[in-house]
Amino acid sequence: MNAPSPSPRTFQVGLIGDGIQKSRTPPMHVAEGAAQGFDLCYDLIDTGTMDPVPPLAQLLDRAQDAGFAGLNITFPYKKEVLAHLDTLSDSVTKLGAANTVVFRDGKRFGHNTDFWGFAEGLRQRLPDAEKDCVLLLGAGGAGGAVGHALVDQGVQRLLVVDRDPAMAQALVDSINRFTPGRAEVARDVTQAAAQAQGIVNATPMGMAKLPGTAIDTALIDPRHWVGDIVYFPMETALLAAARAKGCRTMSGAGMAVFQAVRAFELFTGQPADAARMRATFESIAP
């Protein structure tokens, strides 16, 4: 008599954010889990659909008490979540934001996979992009990861703009603490765009829930390369305007896929197949 085959390992994970119904992260994780023989369930915890919105602490408690292996964290909670974690990875300490939380042995471990995700996306999509001077729009949770990644990838002068000048200054100080003299606050966006070879949007502007652009598109020239971290919709207003002017562009797809590749390994303990996760991402209808 044959022994019953063992049941697949089960992982329950999720994503906390505001306005995330069109996220492609869940199917990437679920499909990769199935390919590796895991029973992986992925919940969307969308505070944009909740009234009233529970405190983040309560959402984390619920997930941990329910036996979740971990959570992805997105806008607007990447900085707020730090106060609710027990241990921070080196990347979180450096960037001041977390996008992945792992629950293990009753503790919460914070990680940031956005840094590597953006860097890998840039390396693959625009490997020869000029990097003498780049304008970064947004210094929030994602902006911190993108800013550090840009400098890590060779940007010599990073100009940072944010609607909150204090946040822009904080990111500049953080970058210059590790790589002195490489970042500065952009006081005049028009002048900054004129000086920059590349423009990267690291704000939520352009998301389905927050349409529009974080910069006047009249400031974009054909000589610019333009990147965006937003991927739903894939073709943001910023990228559409840049493409219409003949700019080389990079959508948020690369960052979305590669941050998920790292998060999958953190959740399950098993490396993910990046090409397979990318194929799942691209197979999803807009």
CATH class of the largest domain: Alpha Beta
Return the structural class: alpha/beta
* Secondary structure tally, helices: 10
**Amount of helix:** 25-40%
Q: Under the CATH scheme, which architecture of the largest domain would be assigned?
A: 3-Layer(aba) Sandwich
Describe the global form. globular
Termini separation comes to 49 Å
Number of domains: 2
User: Uncertain segments of ≥5 residues (pLDDT<50)?
Assistant: 1-7
Question: Averaging pLDDT over every residue, what do you get?
Answer: 95
User: Main sheet: which strands, in order across?
Assistant: 2-1-3-5-6-4
Under CATH, the topology of the largest domain can be stated as Rossmann fold
Fourth-tier CATH superfamily name of the largest domain: NAD(P)-binding Rossmann-like Domain
Radius of gyration: 19 Å
Number of strands: 12
Care to describe what's here?
The model is unreliable at about 1-5 (pLDDT under 50). Helix 6 links the parallel strand 8 and strand 9. The protein folds into two domains: about 10-110 and about 255-285, Rossmann fold; about 115-250, NAD(P)-binding Rossmann-like Domain (Rossmann fold, 3-Layer(aba) Sandwich). About 35% of the residues lie in helices and about 20% in strands. The chain is of the alpha/beta class. The protein has a six-stranded mixed sheet, with helices on both faces. Strands 9-8-7-10-11-12 form a six-stranded parallel sheet, with helices on both faces. The chain has helices at about 25-35, 55-65, 90-95, 115-125, 140-150, 165-180, 190-195, 235-245, 255-270, 275-285; strands spanning about 10-15, 40-45, 70-75, 85-90, 100-105, 105-110, 135, 155-160, 185, 200, 225-230, 250.
